[in-house]
Design goal:
Strand content: 35-45%
Number of domains: 1
CATH class: Mainly Beta
CATH topology: Immunoglobulin-like
Radius of gyration: 15 Å
Number of helices: 0
Distance between the termini: 19 Å
Shape: elongated
């Protein structure tokens, strides 16, 4: 099964590459930093799937403003189809 990658849309090229989204686990450990210029995150850490859990993010704009939020990482189970 291939993981979907999530991140800012690639057509947002007008945004500065210095804007960053940081993703943290429930203990505050930094898992990933994403550039708004097109990076993404597929829910993996060191080539291992992370379990379904709550995560937090911080979006830092070029002007210094920060936005913080929360999301739940969910895994989609895709049933196998047999002929």
């Amino acid at each position: 099964m291939q993981n979907r990658a999530h991140g800012p849309s690639a057509d947002n090229s007008r945004r500065a590459a210095s804007e960053k989204i940081s993703i943290f686990d429930r203990f505050g450990k930094l898992l990933k930093q994403i550039n708004t210029s097109g990076d993404s995150w597929d829910g993996m850490l060191n080539n291992n799937l992370l379990p379904e859990a709550d995560h937090w993010f911080k979006f830092k704009r070029v002007n210094g403003r920060e936005f913080k939020g929360h999301f739940t990482l969910k895994r989609q189970v895709i049933p196998l189809k047999f002929p």
